[in-house]
Specification:
Distance between the termini: 21 Å
Radius of gyration: 16 Å
Structural class: alpha/beta
Largest sheet: 7 strands, mixed
Strand order of the largest sheet: 1-3-2-4-5-6-7
Number of helices: 6
Strand content: 15-25%
Helix content: 25-40%
């Protein structure tokens, strides 16, 4: 479905009592998760919508629209009918998911997969803010080669992610793991693993589907 700020698709049983909103830059192929309604969301202006505050980088363009997009998402897509609500994202989407979990008491769990926690100000923000009281578990993962870059900002992603896993772990259950490869390795498989690890549906099978 196409809306003002994003397109999205729903995957899985519409009668499920559990929903997972997952933010991606572009469409991926993923099979349904038994007992979970997946809502895969693809913002049109990725760098703007998924960044909570401004960062001046000529390669990223306009940034800092995360708060605005979060309000729009809650009014247009978030559905109160589900008993269990999860939010997650890949790359900048992972940063946005953690931001949303701090700003709104709407979610029961959060997933940051290869989250862009190198983003300037992330350490300071998450050190100062408390993750939502409803949040039971936080899932975080990163490729083991993602810090191997000559970009001075992005090479901090490993240190920042480990540090924030420690910060969140002071008050929440945190599952953090490294996956093999770089930022664009096995994306659908990493997302599938994050959902299964976070929600832990019984008798569930899911795998990334390669066309």
């Amino acid at each position: 479905m196409y809306l003002k700020n994003c397109s999205y698709e729903t995957i899985g049983d519409k009668d499920s009592q559990t929903v997972c909103y997952f933010f991606m830059a572009e469409r991926i192929n993923i099979e349904p998760v038994e007992g979970v309604r997946l809502v895969m969301i693809y913002p049109y202006d990725w760098n703007y919508c998924m960044t909570p505050w401004k960062y001046h980088d000529k390669n990223m363009g306009k940034t800092g629209g995360g708060e605005e997009f979060l309000s729009w998402f809650i009014s247009e897509i978030y559905d109160e009918k589900y008993q269990r609500q999860y939010i997650g994202g890949y790359s900048l989407g992972g940063l946005f998911a953690l931001f949303a979990a701090c700003e709104k008491e709407l979610f029961d769990g959060v997933m940051s997969v290869s989250g862009s926690l190198w983003y300037p100000g992330a350490l300071e923000y998450f050190n100062e803010k408390s993750i939502g009281k409803r949040i039971g578990k936080i899932y975080m993962s990163l490729g083991d080669k993602e810090s191997l870059t000559k970009n001075a900002e992005r090479e901090k992603v490993g240190f920042n992610t480990e540090k924030l896993a420690e910060v969140f772990g002071r008050t929440k259950e945190v599952f953090f793991e490294y996956n093999r490869g770089g930022h664009f390795t096995d994306i659908s498989e990493r997302i599938a693993k994050s959902i299964l690890t976070e929600i832990k549906c019984e008798n569930t099978r899911v795998r990334g589907r390669k066309d």
